[in-house]
Amino acid sequence: MFRQNKKRISSRRHFSNENSGSQFIMGQRGSEAEKRLYDKIYESKLSFYELPPQGEITLDQFEIWAIDRLKVLLELESCVARNKTAKETETIVKPLLQKLLPFNTDNLEDKKKDYYSHFILRLCFCRTKDLRDKFVRAETLLFKLRFNMLTSQYQTKFVQSLDLPMLQFISEEEKIEFSQELYQTIAPQLQFQLNLTDEMQRKQYFQNEKFIKLPFESVIDLVGSRQVFLKKGFAYLPQFQQLNLLSREFSHRLEDELMRTFQHLPHLNEDDRLIPILTHLSTGYTISDYQQYSHDFGSDSQEGDINSQNVYSKEILSNFPLCAKNLFNGLQQQHHLRYNGRQQLSFFLKGIGLSADEALRFWAEAFTAKGGSMTMDKFNKEYRYNFRHNYGLEGSRISYRAWDCRTILSKPRPARGEFHGCPYRDWNVDKLTSELAAMNLTAVQMNSILESCQKNEFTIACTKVFENTHGQTGMEIDDQTHIAHPNLYFERSRQWQKKHNGDSAAQAK
């Protein structure tokens, strides 16, 4: 066994592929050859990721780079699920993109991170059809977003670098022959997509625009919406809509490459370091899993800001997500919570800034309150250890983090008399609708939330509730807007509340 492990480790040390004939030959880290290689790959700032990278990166880079790319892809999917427009999506995702996955840069490490992270996620998402479809959809969204962020000069440069045979422009004679039909087809798009409201502006733009002629099935999504002119089985695509063609080509190529990756996946089974990482990344991930906070959520809370008394205040409770409100209401009704409920609420309160001493005071008062049947002696004997253990003061001394949505959804559904779990999953339609109506949501908003619940998109439903109850005014766009953690909901709600109250006070003066 020792010899087998030694042989396996030895084979990992070098990834040179002398017989492959690949042009991807890496020198030492940061070498001139490596820099020239990536300068060539990203000459036009974008890539179709045609050839796999070769070289060595650390396991930390392998995981962190993949996680950072996942955050961007998850936020993109969340924006689409919440029906954000292209402009809103760009506003939300751009700060996250610049922070985690910058692409319009000359930095070698940024280029390597983008290239490697794409291929690492190919390994994660090639295993099943559902995962492949999910990855293709998300990567295509990212490609479209990045293309639109490029200047027209780099867009043209990128298209030329692809050398696609389908991107053949018609002659000026053919454009003149169908000029009337072509203009009538694209005029509405020039007005509403490019904001050219003046007729003279639209005609001037048309005079300079080039058209691509290709089989209509290549742009079938544009045919149904009458955005292209059809003639004898060919579609005439204006150059400003070439992104539809490019994204389709990108997704088709990626689908093929994912299948090839899947076929070669068994070769990875020998490497016991990578399989756990890949499995973890591809199953059940959420944005919140990878937040790198210095400590738990509640980083904005000052020490003593939340205590066993003011946690009952209307101001604090208004920031609770629905799952935490449900637990809180259950605790007040029953003067007790069963194990999963105690753990979920205990970790949540810890995450928002309730100290260990204040937590013990809170739970003792809640369990022994008037109307209940528990004495202080029984609380100290049966429950005190549990709450101290949650704060790392007993047992193995581990300071546990608050449960994220993935963890909550992995627990058993609540039985009668239990209040843990996710209301968007566990409540029936009537109960959830009644609760949403109490939040003063409109019928359209409620239907949208219920539709997400039916699709099992519970974090999307929670994010929609947050946006509809807090509005967009004064909300900051930072790392991500998708909410996949109850404490992230609380933190954002508290920030919005403080800013909103501050603005109201300023207006009063």
From TrEMBL:
Co-factor binding details: Binds 1 [4Fe-4S] cluster.
Function: DNA primase is the polymerase that synthesizes small RNA primers for the Okazaki fragments made during discontinuous DNA replication.
Keyword line: 4Fe-4S, DNA replication, DNA-binding, Iron, Iron-sulfur, Metal-binding, Primosome
Cofactor(s) needed by this chain: [4Fe-4S] cluster
Disordered: annotated segments: 1-24
GO molecular function term, any single one: DNA binding
Residues in DNA primase large subunit C-terminal domain copies: 318-490
Residues spanning the signal sequence: none
InterPro entries in the cross-refs: DNA_primase_C, DNA_primase_lsu_euk, DNA_primase_lsu_euk/arc
GO biological process, one term: DNA replication, synthesis of primer
Family: Belongs to the eukaryotic-type primase large subunit family.
Highest taxon listed in the record's lineage: Eukaryota
Presence of the UniProt keyword Repressor in the record: no
GO cellular component: alpha DNA polymerase:primase complex
Bias (Basic residues) ranges: 1-14
Name of the protein this chain belongs to: DNA primase large subunit
